[in-house]
Amino acid sequence: MCAQAAICGFCSCEVTLASAELDNLVGAYKTDNNTIKISRKANQLVADVYGLTKRKLYASSETNFFAKDIDFEFTFQLDENGKSVGMTFRFADEEIKGKKHH
To answer: Which helix or strand (DSSP H or E) is residue 59 part of?
Structure first.
């Protein structure tokens, strides 16, 4: 665990993930009121938050991602087979959960 994670619970130290790990997270995640779309551009994920803003995401672990230019954090939930089934999006003081569409 990096020093930042020990303080705030979330690390923004970058790690590199394999293509298959990134592909597993790509998809549409249904929230209570809308959908957050996660796509892949080269070796990076891109979050389309409600069609309002697209942000590049950087991996800090296999399931934790952050944006560098805005206070966005994503934590993806995996099932027992390692497949993405949901995510939690944090922005400022808000926490929004979404389930992956299959």
So the answer is: strand 53-59
Q: Return the biggest CA–CA distance within the chain.
A: 36
21-69 pLDDT, tens digit each:
999 999 999 999 899 999 999 999 999 998 878 999 999 999 999 999 8
CATH class of the region 12-100: mainly beta
Comparing CA positions, the residue from 46, 54, 93, 87 lying closest to residue 71 is 93
| 42 contact partners, CB below 8 Å, separation of at least 6 | none
Q: How confident is the model at residue 6 (pLDDT cuts 50, 70, 90)?
A: very low
Q: Kindly list the domain boundaries of the chain, sorted by start residue.
A: 12-100
Q: Which of 24, 88, 22 is nearest to 56 (CA)?
A: 22
